Amino acid sequence: MLKANIGCRIVIGYERTDKALVEKFRDLPVANIGDCMNRVTAVHQDIRPMNNTPLLGTAFTVKVPQGDNLMFHKAMDLAQPGDIIVIDAGGMKNRAILGELMINYCKIRGVAGVVVDGSIRDYDSISQMDFPVYARGVNPNGPYKNGPGEIGTVISFGGQIVSPGDIVVGDADGIVFIRPKEAEALAEKVKAVSEKEKDIMETMKTDGTYNRPWVDEKLQEIDCQYVNLTNGEV
Ligand SMILES: O=C([O-])CC(=O)C(=O)O
Ligand SMILES: [Mg+2]
């Protein structure tokens, strides 16, 4: 019978996502990516960037129990360059899962970023680093190191599901996860939207116009009442 120590296991050897595919999302705004995923895939808005470094790489997943970082310590040694360590810490903010020592070690190892659905500490130092870190909160209470936890399994992060190898993109607005199989087509869609937005902005700056016929069409469709107080017209 297969040994199954659910909740305390380390799964390694998953296929890393093609770097060229990941690069297709470089500099694409997370808001535009989210729009092309029907506006329902961003992680919870309370998970915020701790500095100004954009985030791009593939998910190396970790799940920890409340306030414990044993599995993150192991993950730092197992992650490969280009991986983003994505930690499901249950959204708990009352204890930091990581701090500046761990983040500096991740950076030295070539990890592409660390995101935690929980808290960090050593904010002063992390906020000045050019290494992307996202978290739900900041708390000086340090982590326990007893386990259990999981590495390399499908986890929940900020209300979204993420699997090892999913593409992770983050900017000042937030984070989205992208399934590698859907990435190629999605990147094309997002590029087209971003180009269109650039054109809109250009026209706005040169002509002072912002063409949106759909606004009046929608108001008509929902039978919006107009009242003109200057002449009493209804
Ligand atoms: O002590 C810890 O486990 C976390 C921490 O503050 C650091 O990495 O600097
Ligand atoms: Mg520290």
TrEMBL record:
Gene3D superfamilies: Ribonuclease E inhibitor RraA/RraA-like. It holds the Pfam family RraA-like. It catalyses: oxaloacetate + H(+) = pyruvate + CO2; 4-hydroxy-4-methyl-2-oxoglutarate = 2 pyruvate. Substrate binds at residues 99-102, 121. Its cofactor is Mg(2+); a divalent metal cation. GO terms for molecular function: 4-hydroxy-4-methyl-2-oxoglutarate aldolase activity; metal ion binding; oxaloacetate decarboxylase activity. InterPro entries: RraA/RraA-like, RraA/RraA-like_sf. Keywords: Magnesium, Metal-binding. Mg(2+) binds at residue 122. Its EC number is 4.1.1.112, 4.1.3.17. The keyword DNA-binding does not apply. It is an enzyme of class 4 (lyase). Catalyzes the aldol cleavage of 4-hydroxy-4-methyl-2-oxoglutarate (HMG) into 2 molecules of pyruvate. Also contains a secondary oxaloacetate (OAA) decarboxylase activity due to the common pyruvate enolate transition state formed following C-C bond cleavage in the retro-aldol and decarboxylation reactions. Belongs to the class II aldolase/RraA-like family. Homotrimer. PANTHER family: 4-HYDROXY-4-METHYL-2-OXOGLUTARATE ALDOLASE 3-RELATED (PTHR33254:SF4). This is Putative 4-hydroxy-4-methyl-2-oxoglutarate aldolase.
